[in-house]
């Protein structure tokens, strides 16, 4: 952890970097793949050259042997809270694509991830984990703070705020938004090609996107696959009525005054 911290605190952003920022389990890998397809002009072979976490390195994560040297223009991802973002991203006015997902689906996805990704402490029961999530006592801290602070970011950097639910509803429309934000244009066929390659089904079977390149001792996909369900509203099969009421009351307090509108189902 200390090494990771030292690494990202000395990280130097370049003006043509593109940062994908998310709270964990909000569609990071998905948008990373969409961005890679755009940057590689839809060339599937190029997008298969390395696992997702090497093609779009995680700012705060580095381990021996991990190749994170990508040529400019770089795609970089982060889960850091805005306050921890290295200042050079702001100084260089780096473009940021933020992806947010509704808190209930994030909590469910995160619980399953905690169980399979062994770097995390044992999450305990779902009920315990949900309390910790609501308290922000999980890796990368409070979801409520993350989505709000990044959302308030205007002025110093260029930010496109996307929602997982919108991507599920209409990926093509969201890809067009991204292209406009990047000031790029692609043919209709190319956009369709990217839409097709970044479906849940395609990404689940893509070894360069589905994290199966990570050893089982670190991520045990028999416990829960990284590409788990990929839907909106899975929380309904997990939350009890009491948990849902408790969550909603807490949510209303934490999100009071916030203009962001999350969709719990499509
Ligand atoms: P679930 O656990 O709900 O299935 P992240 O990449 O930020 O860690 O997010 C992982 C979540 O995004 C997982 O959610 C995963 O299944 C989902 N996901 C990944 N690729 C997806 C895709 N192409 N379509 C829909 N969901 C996707």
TrEMBL record:
GO CC terms of this entry: cytoplasm
UniProt-recorded Gene Ontology molecular function terms: sulfotransferase activity
Lineage top rank: taxon: Eukaryota
Residue ranges of domain Sulfotransferase in the record: 15-258
Coiled coil ranges: none
UniProt keyword list: Cytoplasm, Signal, Transferase
Subcellular location per the Swiss-Prot or TrEMBL entry: Cytoplasm
Enzyme class: transferase
EC code(s) of this entry: 2.8.2.-
Classification via SUPFAM superfamilies: P-loop containing nucleoside triphosphate hydrolases (SSF52540)
Residues in the signal sequence: 1-15
Family: Belongs to the sulfotransferase 1 family.
Record's protein name: Sulfotransferase
Annotated organism of origin: Spermophilus dauricus
